[in-house]
Design brief:
It is a single chain. It is flat, with a radius of gyration of 24 Å. The chain is built from 6 helices and 4 strands.
Length: about 190
């Protein structure tokens, strides 16, 4: 059973039209649809191109320009540096998997809080806030450790891939890649 996406049309005047409600909506409304887990697709009304990613990036940009940005300067510059690199194709799935793991962790913690404190949203929100304030340093250390492990795994994978590429293409003598230790041991080819 496939769930149909909710189609939002974007007109040249930059207005967004929700085809499900037959009304114009704002970028804030699109954000709320995403928060409500509604599967959306934004299409250019004139060309019919899928522009969903651009609209989602626009929402992220507005959030980042708001009071408390999520991405540091270092993270943003690293994102930019990955474009055009050999590892660019792997970065998206890598980040996606890490976000899935983070979401699962968040869900488990919310389920545990619900088990302990029940369904009272006021108590839940206050208790959850108190818990996070109290456990903030521990949570930060856990996330830092997780990110360090994740980074090390990614760098190790990158190094192994580079070494495999060097080994595979060592006979071609590319000037950009110095010979490996194995190449230095082998006799010169005539």
């Amino acid at each position: 059973m496939s769930v149909e996406k909710r189609i939002i049309k974007k007109y040249p005047n930059r207005r967004l039209y929700d085809t499900a409600t037959s009304s114009y909506i704002t970028l804030g409304d699109v954000k709320q649809l995403v928060l409500d887990n509604v599967d959306i697709q934004v299409v250019d009304a004139k060309s019919h191109d899928d522009i969903t990613r651009g609209v989602l990036l626009q929402i992220i940009l507005e959030e980042e320009n708001g009071g408390s940005p999520m991405f540091s300067y270092e993270v943003l510059t690293q994102f930019i540096r990955f474009y055009g690199q050999a590892m660019q194709g792997m970065m998206g799935p890598f980040l996606e998997k890490n976000l899935q793991l983070f979401t699962q962790l968040q869900s488990r913690m919310q389920e545990q809080a619900k088990t302990i404190y029940g369904d009272n949203p006021v108590v839940n929100a206050k208790m959850w806030g108190d818990f996070l304030n109290f456990q903030g340093p521990a949570m930060q250390n856990m996330m830092t450790s997780y990110l360090d492990q994740s980074t090390n795994m990614f760098l190790d994978m990158q190094n192994r891939m580079q070494e495999q590429a060097r080994t595979m293409f060592s006979g071609f003598g590319f000037p950009a890649y110095p010979p490996t230790r194995d190449d230095e041991k082998s006799p010169p080819q005539k």
